[in-house]
Amino acid sequence: MKKTFVSAVAALGFMTATGAAMADGTLDAVKKKGFVQCGVSTGLPGFSNPDDKGNWMGLDVDLCRAVAAATLGDASKVKYIPLTAKERFTALQSGEIDLLSRNTTWTLTRDGSLGLNFAGVNYYDGQGFLVSKDLGVKSAKELDGAAVCIQAGTTTELNLADYFREFGMKYQPVVFDTSDQTVKGFEAGRCDVLTSDQSQLYALRIQLSNPDKAMVLPEVISKEPLGPVVRQGDDQWFNIVKWSLFAAITAEELGVSSDNVDKMKSSTNPNVQRLLGAEAGQGKNLGLDDTWAFNIVKQVGNYGEMFERNVGKSSPLGIERGLNALWTKGGLQYAPPIR
Length: 339
Fold this sequence. Notes:
The protein is of the alpha/beta class. It has 13 helices and 14 strands. A five-stranded mixed beta sheet has the order 10-9-11-8-12, with helices on both faces. The protein has a three-stranded parallel beta sheet with strand order 4-1-5, sandwiched between helices. A two-stranded antiparallel ribbon has the order 2-3. A hairpin with a 5-residue loop joins strand 2 and strand 3. Helix 3 runs antiparallel to helix 12 (292-299).
């Protein structure tokens, strides 16, 4: 009884401290501590992965940096918290992180029952399959009876079950906690096929000792809109994260980049003036300085720059823009007007 009481008091104390920290608002808390605590993956090239010097890089990392640039004026003011798929939502709910930017799929259940808000889509994706070329398989419909490597705590597990049931096939799941464990299991021959979001498959493929021996099958079996996540109940922070992404997309659409942003401040285009703070008043709607979006573009770049250096054709992943092209170029990336 005594142990139970002490545990309950400790838990209550933790909840009270967490609640007090969040009661002032996440923006105020971020300003007080001087950095954004951002939940990322345990290591996924192109999205969130430390380099050989320990510097975090990737498309999801750039979203964290954009929020830091908008709120603190300095994109480097981020503390990265590596999280597994099973840990990520608890870390956000508990207040351990301010923002989750970790290749996370926006779904009804997650949006409606976990006390979380998705703040947009920074990568439109879909689930696929990675196989060894030696397997001689050209289509996912040839995988009946296959052993499938899969990461726990993801929508991938549910999509896999749906797909195999739809086509009357059977499979043997081989479940791992992290993407690194999953790809090692695949390479060690513990499974015939590895399934995940296609972007992740390209990232995991380059980690193989011989990437040319593996191929991604053509089927895309799901919709996986990936994006940043915040806690419900703090509309100001929700808006800041959402509009940090929108500002990067808008900058690309308007032709504003990290290279020309200083010169573009003198543009006569009203949309550019509002974006970069030359026309005053937009920042106050978010509780920020009018230079919030300028800082994002200057220090991190527009969405196109983020995409290309991390996952695009010039990166090791070599992914085409596809659905992630701007709406003006046949893609789905579209931001509401900044006005």
